[in-house]
Amino acid sequence: METTSPHPTAPHGTAPDTGPHGYSADKEALLKRLRRIEGQVRGIARMVEEDTYCIDVLTQVAAVNAALHKVSLNLVEDHIGHCVVGAAERSQATGDPSIVDAKVKEASAAIGRLLR
Predict the structure, then answer these.
(1) What is the spatial distance between Cα 14 and Cα 7, in angstroms, rounded to a whole number?
(2) In angstroms, rounded to a whole number, what is the distance separating the alpha carbons of residues 42 and 23?
(3) Helix axis angle, 54-78 relative to 27-49, nearest 10°?
(4) Quick one: pLDDT at residue 20?
(5) DSSP state letters, 13-67
(6) How many Å apart are CA 82 and CA 97, to the nearest integer?
(7) Please, what is the angle between helix 85-94 and helix 97-115, to 10°?
């Protein structure tokens, strides 16, 4: 699956985000959680290799999905609290409402992808 990033060109022709991102303060905790999830996924692969009972594998898949959802929600909170708020401040300072509009649309699109 191909992923795209809004960087270096931000949506709607706005300037790309520079500097620390919303998750920067919690980066180590985020990486630790992602490494734990990575280990869980490797464990699921081992379970399949060892012909573990289907329901047990599905239980572990559900745990990984829940962990990824929690990571996603934390990233959304960080994005809104840092990136969207920053865009609102820049929008207010410059009088350009398109700055915050673009960031809100970007966040809405990301949330929409999470809900699929």
Answers:
(1) 11
(2) 25
(3) 160
(4) 72
(5) GPPPP-S--TTGGGHHHHHHHHHHHHHHHHHHHHHHHTT--HHHHHHHHHHHHHH
(6) 17
(7) 160
pLDDT band at 21 (very low <50, low <70, confident <90, very high): confident
The two tokens of residue 79 are 């994005």
On whether the CB atoms of residues 101 and 107 are closer than 8 A, the answer is no
Q: Is the dihedral of CA 12, 18, 21, 27 positive or negative?
A: positive
What separation in angstroms does the CA of 69 have from each of 29, 33, 63? 15, 12, 10
* pTM of the predicted structure, to 2 decimals: 0.74
What are the structure tokens assigned to 40, written together?
Answer: 């869980």
51-102 pLDDT per residue, tens: 999 999 999 999 999 999 999 999 999 999 999 999 999 999 999 999 999 9
Q: Are 87 and 79 contacting, i.e. CB atoms less than 8 angstroms apart?
A: no
Separation of alpha carbons 90 and 47, rounded Å: 50
